[in-house]
Specification:
The structure is a homodimer.
Chain A: H1 5-12, H2 16-23, H3 31-44, H4 50-57, E1 62-68, H5 73-86, E2 92-98, H6 104-113, E3 119-123, H7 129-135, E4 142-145, E5 153-157, H8 159-172, E6 178-181, H9 188-203, E7 213-214, H10 226-237, E8 245-248, H11 251-264, E9 270-274, H12 277-282, E10 285-288, H13 291-307, E11 315-318, E12 321-323, H14 330-337
Parallel strand pairs in A: 1-2, 1-3, 3-4, 4-5, 5-11, 6-7, 6-8, 8-9, 9-10
Antiparallel strand pairs in A: 10-12
Chain A binds a DNA duplex (16 and 16 nucleotides) through helix 2 and helix 4.
DNA sequence: CTGAAAGCGCTTACAG
DNA sequence: CTGAAAGCGCTTACAG
């Protein structure tokens, strides 16, 4: 191991307390000693060890973002907001990837128990209600993102509303039989999107046809993959009575669905969910989630929670915005092609 | 803060040494006391604090992956390999995001100095040679991924060869004027790809036309963005004498380039680099990097380096594989459309 | 199989 | 402005 505070103190001819003060920006150090210590530290490449600081201070100065393995694209954009906001504070961000094939709760508990951070951002981690309950006993600052449980602060998007908006748009544009590319129901956003989809159909005076709600066999990332989208769309296309249009639970599934349509040369209008970066370039009509803002807000909530553990729990829900591009306007495109 | 080793010891009526032994899987504990301690710990949600362990053991049991902010898609797939391999060992993986607009070296040094991990994986971090040099003094296990410096173990892909293969393919298929969508030259992979591209052109008996090597104004992620690709392709298309085909430094740029071609209804064959997941669904012909394998291998090297700091430095270079899909076969497609 | 004690590298009142 | 000392929550020889 390299230089410690003792080495620096000895070489500078001061006590370790003084060295410590310099690195903690304590003003009660003469400019001369400060400079001397700093220059010695620079030569030796010294900086207080995070672990020793953490132990002595009884905090880590680290915010842990807990994300599912092979974080989805959604996450990458949320992260940008988190980072930008966090850089205003004196916290480091560490990201801990949870493996999807293992017990999620156990992994989450492990991180909390080890005390890896002062606060935790759970991004797109979809546990059941009972599991969230059991995390409460750790009594540690946690913000849920892209998930909801009454026991924790959260920031998410109104998936029900978003799905409703998308589906209604599709119906209004002379499409009656709207299908849905769904994903694994364990994720709350997925259940909500199915919910909103169904409500839109009913409110338009149609009956929900469960056969029109399909998903692929690929269960990676809770079914939010290109592959799952491709598989699901193939099912739709091969039906005896294919749907007129389709709402996809995510953009990434829509990418696979697009491919399926191309493969079979059968196109139907589609609106998806997220508005990840590539969507603009692929012409995906989608329900835009304010991912960057979600990241910003989550950090603000977390800092507040850390500073005031007893504050009221708050939930922020954003309304997704309908972005119309090519994928939903296939009638037009069809005319051009034909 | 929650329960400590003292609380558990007191309740179990043993010394803290015994509690510690249980959590360190030391066999010298009677089964009865072990069970008792474990069950008390379970109730209290106790686990040794990472920071205290780290200090006492003088290691962290953490591998830090250092990645550029808004990690590119490439990184996500590399990470899968890292995680899978790391789960065989008793290390936790933490990811530290480096901000791109700030001094890269300073941030890297900060992480190393704080002693955040026992070993470090630098993924797609592109520093200059002098900077790598200055990291050596920390004398800490570091593996370079997607980058090369003689002073550190590294695992990367032969970008020169890959670019050469792609460009040669393009030339062979009756295209003479091949352009290149480049990125910021500070990244070694980018420089290598330009290099390979040029060599292929020369070896085919043509002259390199510098005007045919373009890049977009967007400098995010070293120019590896959809936007940068779109901008660059627009330049190409608007030339008086547009190229016959194009080699793109990355798939993500190719996504933007595809859009540019669509926008202007001017298509040219294109091969890119990476083979990220969406590429298959978008029909991108590309030079495949074995991203998962790169992750696996980097972890193996890092573990070896940790266990044997004095071992010879080794470099592994993978050969990218040409994957032909639609984007390079536009001649065929054109015939169908026309 | 178990405990007492030293030590890991820091921070932080307290005293001067 | 500076230092001596206690303490953070663990691990690990050492002794029994």
């Amino acid at each position: 191991m390299s230089a410690t505070i003792y080495d620096i103190a000895k070489e500078a001819g001061v006590s370790i307390a003084t060295v410590s003060r310099v690195f903690n920006n304590n003003k009660n150090v003469s400019d001369k000693t400060r400079q001397k210590i700093l220059s010695i530290a620079e030569v030796k490449g010294y900086h207080p060890r995070a672990f020793a600081q953490g132990l002595a201070r009884r905090n880590t100065n680290i915010i842990m973002a807990i994300v599912p393995v092979i974080s989805n694209y959604f996450f990458m954009e949320v992260l940008a907001g988190i980072q930008d906001k966090l850089s205003e504070y004196n916290y480091d961000l560490n990201i801990y990837n949870i493996k999807n094939n293992v017990d999620l709760l156990q992994q989450a508990e492990y991180v909390l128990r080890k005390g890896m951070g002062d606060g935790y951002l759970f991004i797109s981690i979809h546990l059941g209600e009972i599991f969230w309950e059991s995390l409460k006993r750790y009594d540690v600052p946690i913000i849920l993102m892209d998930e909801y449980d009454s026991g924790f602060d959260s920031v998410s998007v109104d998936s029900i509303e978003g799905a409703y908006t998308a589906t209604t748009y599709l119906i209004k544009h002379q499409n009656q039989r709207i299908a849905m590319l769904s994903a694994l129901p364990q994720a709350k956003p997925t259940r909500d999107r199915v919910h909103g989809y169904k409500r839109a159909i009913e409110d338009a005076g149609y009956l929900v046809d469960e056969d029109l709600i399909v998903r692929g066999e690929d269960t990676n990332r809770d079914g939010f993959t290109e592959k799952a989208g491709h598989q699901a769309m193939m099912k739709l296309i091969q039906m005896n009575n294919p749907p007129d249009a389709c709402f996809s639970a995510s953009d990434i599934q829509a990418v696979g669905a697009l491919k399926a349509m191309k493969d079979s040369n059968r196109y139907i209008p589609m609106i998806s969910f997220d508005d990840i970066q590539i969507s603009e370039y692929l012409g995906l009509s989608t329900m835009r989630q304010p991912m960057y803002e979600i990241g910003i807000l989550a950090v603000e909530k977390l800092i507040k929670r850390i500073n005031n553990p007893k504050a009221m729990i708050s939930h922020t829900v954003f309304s997704p915005e309908l972005i119309i591009r090519d994928s939903s306007e296939l009638n037009v495109r069809h005319q051009i092609i034909e």
